[in-house]
Amino acid sequence: MDLLRMKLIPSTLLSDELATEFKTVQAMVAIYCRDHHQSGGLCESCQALLDYAEMRLDRCPYGQTKPTCNKCPIHCYKPDPKSQMQVVMRYAGPRMLLPHPILSIRHLLHERRAVPVKPPGGLSNRAKRKREIDEGNPK
Predict the structure, then answer these.
(1) Maximum alpha-carbon separation in the chain
(2) In a domain? residue 126
């Protein structure tokens, strides 16, 4: 299956801005994996990196107001996945415009936003989900 034609699978954890951010990361990882690993789909290491990225987005303290990762003052990735993601983004970023023009332009515009001040606790997607479950209103 051609990874660029691969349907971007929506996250079951994320919504709104975070889900769009995840689609962008998913597209970048797919481009990188296709060109470097030739496995016909996402290889194990790229899938693990994508799963890690989804978890970090879910737990982002900024929640839906999250800045792009390179502008964020909170560095939440562990060193190994951080360096892997930097390699992926440096490679795939310039190659995103043709296969994913809307995601690319959206990401470039998002990078120009001002970085919000450090958020108070409880804004992460994960914290909101836990509150909804505790209140008996799971989505």
Answers:
(1) 46
(2) yes
